[in-house]
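User: Before I run my own analysis I want an independent prediction to cross-check against. Here's the chain; please return only the C-alpha cells and, at the end, one sentence I can use as a sanity check.
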Amino acid sequence: MNAVPPTAAEPLPLSALQHLVFCERQFALIHVERQWADNPLTVDGKALHEQADAGGSETRGDVRILRGLALRCERLALVGKADVVELHRTGGGDGARLPGADGCWRPFPVEYKRGRPKLHDADRVQLCAQAFCLEEMLAVPVPAGALFYGKTRRREEVAFDPALRQRTETAAARAAPAWRST
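Assistant: C-alpha cells:
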C-alpha cells in the first residue's frame, strides 16, 4: 500500500491505537512505514466490518442503531468510523438531543472484531477512543460500549473506567508523533 503521508494536522486513525497497544512494531509497519498486505484474516475482518457498516440506520423501540458513523475527536486528534452506535433513549435529561427525535439518547458504541476476546487491552482502547469521539461530538458522557467478536458471536461489554480512559489517552499521545513524522 503506497499511501500519502499524513500532514502535521491530519488526525490519527482510531485503528492505529489498537495496533499500537497490540504491537508497537505492527503500528510502525502499518502507520509509519505504510507497509500493508491483506491476508485471509484481514480479508475476513474487512468483510465483517463492511457487513456491520452496511444498512444505514434503524430504530427498534427505544434504541436507534447507526452504522458506519464518522467519528472525530479534536482534543486527541483522532478520526475514524464506528461500526455501530446504538442510541438508547434515556428516561431523563442525561443524554443527547437528536434532530427529529423526542427525548434524550445515550450513545453506546459497538466495535466488530473477527476473532475472539483477547487478554490484552488493544480492542478496548480502540473502543474507548470511539467513546471519546462520541462524547466530544454529542457533549454527553459515554460510560460503556461493547466489542462483538465474530468467532464467538457474542458481545463483551466494556466499561470506560478511569484506567482505560487514561490508557487510551496515553496511547493517542504516544502514537501521534510517529504518525505525523512519516
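Sanity check: The two ends are 14 Å apart (CA to CA).
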